[in-house]
């Protein structure tokens, strides 16, 4: 059985070697299934840079670039543990939908760097809600298909955001 360990860290800039080393050491020591980094402040990241951070432990990665000197997200995961079937990348979040390989459990992991400005919070919430609604609807459709017509009527009402 694999223990689930998710590391989320607002790194406040990934440009310095000390921070890269700290992430590399944390990944090597804790052996997480998923690592979420917020506020990387990087406009891009190469596969080589990602490998330096995670070694061979976290093969999958997804990146949302910083805008200017703000933001930037990096999500990394162990492909032997979690299989990503769908991903959504936004400047404020990276959403990963997939399966935990050990038990085929479908789930989602979302790396979020929310806005500080009140004016942006509403649009951000709507974006998150839209993603959740689509994924929840797909999951509910799969569950519904497993039940008889009688049971379907009971499960037909879905609350959305």
Automatic annotation (TrEMBL):
GO molecular function, one term: DNA-(apurinic or apyrimidinic site) endonuclease activity
Tagged with keyword Magnesium: yes
A GO BP entry: base-excision repair
Matches recorded under InterPro entries: AP_endonuc_1 (IPR004808), Endo/exonu/phosph_ase_sf (IPR036691)
Required co-factors: Mg(2+)
Keywords on record: Hydrolase, Magnesium, Metal-binding
Keyword Metal-binding appears in the UniProt entry: yes
One of the record's GO cellular component terms: nucleus
Descriptive protein name: Endonuclease/exonuclease/phosphatase domain-containing protein
């Amino acid at each position: 059985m694999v223990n689930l360990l998710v590391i989320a860290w607002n790194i406040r800039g990934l440009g310095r070697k000390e921070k890269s080393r700290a992430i590399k050491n944390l990944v090597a020591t804790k052996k997480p299934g998923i690592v979420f980094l917020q506020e990387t402040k990087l406009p891009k990241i190469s596969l080589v840079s990602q490998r330096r951070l995670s070694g061979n432990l976290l093969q999958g990665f997804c990146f949302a670039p910083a805008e200017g000197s703000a933001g930037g997200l990096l999500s990394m995961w162990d492909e032997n543990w979690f299989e990503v079937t769908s991903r959504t990348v936004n400047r404020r979040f990276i959403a990963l939908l997939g399966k935990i390989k050990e038990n085929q459990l479908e789930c989602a992991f979302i790396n979020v760097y929310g806005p500080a400005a009140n004016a942006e919070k509403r649009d951000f919430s709507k974006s998150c809600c839209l993603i959740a609604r689509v994924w929840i609807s797909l999951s509910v459709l799969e569950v519904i298909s497993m039940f008889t017509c009688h049971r379907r009527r009971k499960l037909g009402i879905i609350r959305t955001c």
